[in-house]
Amino acid sequence: MHARYLSLPLLALSPFVSAEECGDVTIADMNWNSATLMAHVDQFILEHGYDCNAELVPGDTMPTGISMSEKGEPDIAPEFWSNSHKEMLEKGQKEGKLRFAGKAFTEGGEEGFWVPKYMVDKNPELATIEGIKANAALFPHPEEDGVSGFMTCPAGWTCQITAGHLFDALELEKAGFEQVDPGSGAALAGSIARAYDREKPWFGYYWSPTPVLGRYEMVKVDFGVAPDPAHYEQCITQADCLEPKVTAYPPSAVNTITTESFAQESPAAYAYISNRSYSNADMSAMMAWMEENQADGEIAAFEFLESYPQVWTQWVPADVAEKVKQAL
């Protein structure tokens, strides 16, 4: 057998491998900021660092997952929130059609109850749920006198169910809080922006990575307990859960998915894909930059590659990093 083929299993083991024949690669370009940024960064690095013929194709979570499982294309879905589609992905993996290549976000998708950092700087106990309850009067309800306000998720969103159950489990009503429905995702983001611009109090639910948490420094409130993924799944996420218990939010799995054929046929390119992962802080900052500059994924990819070399050069061997820098 030719030596090149003998070396394939070794290549697949290391993130730092020399570029082999890469060929055609298709990447799902999904229609939200973090995913389209990732897709364009992957395209640029694979094209210029690994000599792949990398093409972006329109994508969305469910249709992309089905197409990868059934037709073997596209080759890469850079950002896949796996919890909602666990069965489909595990089936594709068992059938030898899909691979979980790695984490799109190093910490996973992060949910929690948050307060502005300027409040915690003045009163450090507000970083804990006990401190929040003891100081409920610091968080006046926007519409009702004599009551404290907790900004929850808009009606109809899954996070309204989870935040509501944790509000009950933490006995926040007993501490003087009432839930405030912002009405929409934009209004929820706007309530943080307004509070921050005036250094006013704010306490409520939010998630990361998001432009809002890239723009405003918020502190995630410590519930004093570890995540209980089983209880979270079986009760906290269910509308009819009657006895919610306190649990920290478990991280949401956000993976990069590839086809098995891509992993086998382009081991060097696959090694890059499985090695690259964005921190929530970096991605939130990039998403805020995209909003502020009305930038699409292509422009944002150049901004990321030029501004974060200390991050992406860790994902590739030195010779590949050099080729990407030359292409920039």
TrEMBL record:
The keyword Manganese does not apply. GO terms for cellular component: ATP-binding cassette (ABC) transporter complex. The keyword Signal applies. SUPFAM superfamilies: Periplasmic binding protein-like II. Residues 1-19 form the signal peptide. Residues 24-306 form the ABC-type glycine betaine transport system substrate-binding domain. InterPro entries: ABC_Gly_betaine_transp_sub-bd. This is ABC transporter substrate-binding protein. The lineage of its organism: Bacteria, Pseudomonadati, Pseudomonadota, Gammaproteobacteria, Vibrionales.
